[in-house]
Amino acid sequence: MVAQLSHLIYRTEQVRSGEQAAAAAIGLSMAQLMQAAAQACLQAIQDHCAAPARVAIVCGPGNNGGDGWVLARLAQAAGYQVTVYAVPPTTKLAQQAQAAWQAEGGRWQSSIDSLHGYQILVDAVLGSGLSRPLTDFYLAAVQAINAAANTAAANTAWVLSVDVPTGLNSDTGQPQPIAVTAAHTVTMVAIKAGLVTGKAKDYVGQLSLAELGIGAAFSKQPAMAELVQPELAQRWLAKRKPSSHKGDHGHLVLIAGGPGMSGAAILAGRAALRSGAGKVTLVTHPHTLAIIAQAQPELMVHGTDEKGLIPWLEQANAIVIGPGLGRDAWAQQQLQQLLDWHLKLIGPLPPVVADADALNLLAQLQQGETPPHLRQWVLTPHPAEAGRLLRSVMSTRFADENMTAVVEADRYEALTQLVTNFNAEVLLKGAGTLIAGPAHQIERILVCERGSPALATAGSGDVLSGLLGALLAQHRQPSAAALHELVATAVWVHAVAGENAAQAGERGTIASDIVNELRALVNP
């Protein structure tokens, strides 16, 4: 990816309108952009497989298909054996590109029976902007491409998608209802929002950006999101002063571990310790106190008593509530005490991370009521928890029964609604984790593209909570902007820890393996 736009994310309509203005500003025609797009795709093909490999290019009727027609001509000139499958072009640029292909003796077929036998398949069917289910030629094209790519034969085809895998909504990342499963997607001008989160991760494959020579001009318009960069870790995990002591590195209070769920509390506590918190106090149910204290001697473990949480909360630089908390009367009492104490405070507040059962209890407590103004809170839901929180405030846009599906259908919209409802920083977990804060404080959504399926294991979220709490405790009373970046830093470290833990294999990686990777990553 190129420097100007490599980390910026835009809505599809922004790209469509902005590319024409950017091209005009520097004197490039749309035909020249099409030529540049095809050249970028040819480079991707050449990087994968040398000529004279057999290449099938499937072209749709619009300018995405036009990119395919130009690519066919360039690939054939480069020595590849090219066959084109297409519907008649309908845009002027695509018609010109088809005519140029035919003028050089190129032929094309209008129906697809099978794409087996090709080494490379190019998907230039629909590109960005699709918002309705696939039908007719388009559905057949996607099915044929996927069938040839997913065959059990040793010579499985390699699939390149031009701009966006056909069938994928380029704003939400949702298939309509299926999409091309690409090995590589070359997206044009700028990264589209739907390519980096949710189900899109199953379809996009390796993502590369071709800014087509207009990146500098295009990047002047504001992006709606940006990718988390490794430099954040360098900024927020600076080397410590030789004279520092544990009091300099923050006191985290962790409220966790209901009866029978000591494991989640232990994982969160260990993650916090390995992430550099100077002190970690774990306030837990009296029945689990001895188990946790024996498992991790570095934790200061206390059972709740008639004094409640207040003595511990008053010492905290940051608070985490939720890992293994449960949903019984004891758990409800802990959350209510924290809410009552935190909402009444005036002035600087210790940040609060709410995870797991704390989120479910928050949704339950707020059912049908106006949600609280959760200043300096970080909500960390996975899609099912996000759905419960959305339903709890009776949002008419999220009244569907299957709330998890509603959230995943448009993760950006669900994230924005959660931030608006609770006025809190929200971290929406999943492939391509999303991070946002109140609009008056935070300019852009942050997206973490790092991670591994190894993170989809019990306890992984508890590790993230402990890690995040530790980073917040070490940076006392962060501003809204600093809080936003610290959350992103924790997400990035957790994601890379998952990747590193899975070096021996994603399947079978457990949460303790992720904890073991944290120490190296928080000392960049």
TrEMBL record:
Organism expressing this protein natively: Pseudidiomarina fusca
Protein name as catalogued: Bifunctional NAD(P)H-hydrate repair enzyme
Reaction(s) catalysed (UniProt annotation): (6S)-NADHX + ADP = AMP + phosphate + NADH + H(+); (6S)-NADPHX + ADP = AMP + phosphate + NADPH + H(+); (6R)-NADHX = (6S)-NADHX; (6R)-NADPHX = (6S)-NADPHX
Phosphoprotein recorded as keyword: no
Domain of life: Bacteria
Biological role stated in the UniProt entry: Catalyzes the epimerization of the S- and R-forms of NAD(P)HX, a damaged form of NAD(P)H that is a result of enzymatic or heat-dependent hydration. This is a prerequisite for the S-specific NAD(P)H-hydrate dehydratase to allow the repair of both epimers of NAD(P)HX.
Gene that this polypeptide is encoded by: nnrE
Subunit field text: Homotetramer.
Binding residue positions for AMP: 429-433, 461
Binding site for (6S)-NADPHX: 63-67, 127-133, 138, 163, 264, 324, 382, 462
SUPFAM superfamilies for this protein: Ribokinase-like, YjeF N-terminal domain-like
Binding site for K(+): 64, 123, 166
